[in-house]
């Protein structure tokens, strides 16, 4: 599946702040995501991202 910087995605697991909507900041072997509620960012492996992805919302 193709992802672009700026796309918003819904993940299966929620962030500790209670939000499961994330914005993609970087795509490569790793994916950097930013929480749309609290603004915290994290870097996860592409394989884990694909596994935990629920839905892609285009920009």
From TrEMBL:
Q: Which domain of life is it from?
A: Bacteria
What name has this protein been given in UniProt?
DUF951 domain-containing protein
Pfam families given in the database record = DUF951
Cross-referenced InterPro entries:
DUF951 (IPR009296)
């Amino acid at each position: 599946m193709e992802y672009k910087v700026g796309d918003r995605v819904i993940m299966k697991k929620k962030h500790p702040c209670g939000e499961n909507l994330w914005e993609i900041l970087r795509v490569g072997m790793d994916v950097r995501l930013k929480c749309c509620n609290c603004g915290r960012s994290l870097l996860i492996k592409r394989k884990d991202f694909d596994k935990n992805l629920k839905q892609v919302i285009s920009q």
